[in-house]
Design brief:
Structural class: alpha/beta
Order of helices and strands: EHEHEHEHEH
Largest sheet: 5 strands, parallel
Shape: globular
CATH architecture: 3-Layer(aba) Sandwich
CATH topology: Rossmann fold
Strand order of the largest sheet: 2-1-3-4-5
Distance between the termini: 16 Å
Number of helices: 5
Number of domains: 1
């Protein structure tokens, strides 16, 4: 990552995936974690200094697509949103775009793929 620290909200219910995000992005960024879309929406509303959101699709309480729709609708947030999911067929990617996601990264990803996706979104490359 670039030398500038980013504040990233990761909305992910898998503890193993949260550890992976922490391992790959944690050294140069401030990471916040939410275990589902409802918790993520609350955090996104409370945290004014976020630079990026990374969201899984399949989660309890509120899935990632509903999270993105409500982030764009209720919170009117323009923040870049990277959806990362094992659900990566073209219809899943299209559904993510339609919900308002800025980017899509299929799981499993490699650390360089994640770093590049994050860099592209926070630096405006989308």
């Amino acid at each position: 990552m670039a030398s500038e620290r980013r504040r990233i909200l990761v909305v992910e219910d898998s503890p193993m995936m949260c550890r992976m995000y922490r391992l790959v992005l944690g050294a140069g960024n401030d990471l916040l974690f939410a275990a589902n879309g409802a918790e993520g929406l609350d955090l996104a509303a409370q945290e004014p200094e976020l630079d990026l959101l990374i969201v899984d699709i399949n989660m309890p309480q509120m899935d990632g697509l509903e999270f993105v729709r409500r982030l764009r609708g209720e919170l009117r947030s323009p923040l870049p949103v990277l959806v990362s999911s094992t659900e990566s067929a073209e219809e899943d990617r299209a559904a993510a775009r339609e919900a308002g996601a800025t980017g899509f990264l299929p799981k499993p990803w490699t650390p360089p793929q994640l770093v590049e996706a994050v860099r592209g979104l926070v630096e405006g490359g989308g």
